[in-house]
């Protein structure tokens, strides 16, 4: 019966147990409010009902003779009335010790058994000389003192103005109960003035502990708000943990795919290239095409492994992959990278698109330009607040009018689309000066472009420094 008393007590001050995965916050608020008050309200209702029954029976019994059924039931009701009041006081003081609840129940049960024995033998009229009656007095006095001492001890340990008020009410009830038991021979239980006044004290305890009609009600609401905030934080942490697990699963799958591509398709391409005859023009052309496929595959694997690489790291990977092919074709590559803090603002998606554009540009240099040199430049332009990516070769060149037509060449169109997808502008032109060759210039804004004078208008792009002469 009292096994659940560890979660009982002054309903307004006890934590609420709830299933966080099955209720929404609004429903939880109503449920928590009911749980906080239902047990405490039930204890008050039980105590007041027991007092009402006892007072009603005392008026009904009136001047009934001792040993009659009326006085027997009056004494029984008084015994359980005391137990109900003690239960309410234990709840009010937020006492969680089970032995006190069991002591309260034992007092009611043993007292009822003794009263039943007295009634069975018709000994009520011989109260002063009957050992059973004396045992009943001693039993109740002992129980009353133990219960009162237990309540006072735990209240003194925890302190708090509300609990001190409960202790005062307990001591008042102890005095009334001791007076009733010790003078039971001459005083009919439940008829003193204190019996009519004591329910008002219990009601006052209930009002104080629940905060109804007092300023502490706002404190209860604040506590409920704290519970909701804690629940929200817990759900946010769970969502963050779930996102982390999802990202780890995706990263693991990406690495598995990259490993399969490298070990499976990559190995097959290497074996095919090794079987081709380098002296056969047709097989040599096929070998070059397969090498380009292998290069594309390696760059793809690098982009999967280096998902969070910076733009400088990504271009360095690209250089590492294409350098052997450039050396085999006799193309000298000049590399000019300026690693500044502003380039860290480039997002992973932008890095990936810039890598694809650079890969396509270098692929065109190797396959179509007939160039002997190529220069790759990546730096930050402070005035225009843009990233500059420039690739220039000394090959056959490209007609500017043809390059400006969006339908010209699948490779050029793809580079334009990639640039537009990240908010960059790209231009295809002939190299400056008397040099032949193709120049690809890409500008990517990496921060908010505002007027340095504070007008808020977009700033114009700064001039692009000409590339140095190439061999």
UniProtKB/TrEMBL annotation:
The keyword Nucleus does not apply. The chain crosses the membrane at residues 42-60, 72-90, 99-123, 135-156, 163-181, 193-209. The keyword Transferase applies. Residues 353-448 form the Histidine kinase domain. InterPro entries: HATPase_C_sf (IPR036890), HATPase_dom (IPR003594), His_kinase_dom (IPR005467), Sensor_HK_TwoCompSys (IPR050482). Its EC number is 2.7.13.3. Keywords: Kinase, Membrane, Transferase, Transmembrane, Transmembrane helix, Two-component regulatory system. It catalyses: ATP + protein L-histidine = ADP + protein N-phospho-L-histidine. It is an enzyme of class 2 (transferase). Residues 450-471 are annotated as: Disordered. Gene3D superfamilies: 1.20.5.1930, Histidine kinase-like ATPase, C-terminal domain. GO terms for biological process: phosphorelay signal transduction system. Pfam families: HATPase_c. PROSITE patterns: HIS_KIN. One of its GO terms (molecular function) is protein histidine kinase activity. PANTHER family: NITRATE/NITRITE SENSOR PROTEIN NARX-RELATED (PTHR24421), NITRATE_NITRITE SENSOR PROTEIN NARQ (PTHR24421:SF10). This is histidine kinase. It comes from Rhodoferax sediminis. The lineage of its organism: Bacteria, Pseudomonadati, Pseudomonadota, Betaproteobacteria, Burkholderiales.
């Amino acid at each position: 019966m009292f096994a659940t008393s560890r979660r009982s007590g002054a309903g307004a001050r006890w934590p609420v147990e709830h299933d966080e995965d099955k209720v929404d916050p609004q429903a939880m608020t109503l449920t928590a409010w009911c749980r906080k008050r239902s047990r405490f309200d039930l204890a008050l209702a039980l105590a007041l009902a027991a007092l009402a029954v006892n007072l009603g029976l005392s008026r009904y019994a009136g001047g009934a003779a001792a040993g009659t059924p009326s006085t027997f039931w009056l004494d029984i009701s008084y015994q359980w009335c005391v137990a109900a009041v003690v239960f309410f006081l234990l709840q009010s003081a937020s006492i969680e010790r089970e032995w006190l609840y069991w002591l309260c129940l034992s007092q009611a049960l043993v007292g009822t058994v003794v009263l039943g024995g007295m009634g069975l033998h018709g000994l009520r009229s011989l109260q002063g000389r009957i050992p059973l009656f004396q045992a009943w007095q001693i039993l109740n006095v002992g129980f009353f003192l133990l219960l009162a001492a237990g309540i006072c001890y735990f209240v003194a340990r925890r302190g708090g103005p509300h609990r001190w008020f409960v202790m005062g009410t307990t001591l008042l009830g102890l005095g009334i109960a001791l007076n009733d038991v010790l003078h039971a021979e001459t005083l009919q239980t439940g008829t003193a003035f204190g019996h009519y006044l004591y329910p008002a004290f219990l009601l006052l305890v209930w009002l104080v502990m629940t905060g109804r009609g007092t300023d502490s009600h706002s404190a209860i609401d604040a506590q409920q708000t704290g519970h909701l905030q804690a629940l929200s934080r817990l759900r946010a942490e769970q969502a963050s943990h779930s996102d982390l697990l999802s990202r780890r699963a995706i990263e693991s799958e990406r690495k598995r795919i990259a490993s399969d591509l490298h070990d499976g398709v990559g190995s097959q391409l290497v074996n095919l290239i090794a079987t081709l005859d380098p002296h056969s023009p047709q097989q040599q052309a096929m070998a070059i095409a397969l090498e380009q496929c292998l290069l594309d595959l390696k760059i793809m694997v690098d982009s999967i492994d280096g998902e969070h690489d910076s733009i400088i790291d990504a271009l360095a990977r690209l250089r590492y992959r294409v350098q052997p092919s450039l050396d085999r074709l006799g193309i000298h590559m000049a590399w000019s990278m300026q690693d500044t803090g502003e380039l860290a603002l480039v997002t992973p998606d932008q890095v990936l698109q810039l890598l694809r554009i650079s890969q396509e540009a270098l692929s065109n240099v190797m396959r179509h330009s007939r160039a002997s040199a190529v220069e790759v430049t990546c730096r930050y332009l402070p005035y225009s607040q843009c990233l500059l990516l420039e690739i220039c070769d000394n090959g056959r060149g490209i007609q500017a009018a043809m390059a400006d037509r969006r339908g010209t060449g699948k490779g050029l169109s793809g580079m334009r689309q990639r640039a537009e997808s990240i908010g960059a502008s790209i231009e295809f032109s002939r190299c400056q000066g008397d040099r032949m060759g193709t120049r690809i210039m890409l500008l990517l804004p990496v921060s908010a472009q505002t007027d340095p004078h504070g007008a808020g208008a977009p700033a114009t792009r700064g001039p692009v420094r000409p590339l140095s002469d190439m061999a």
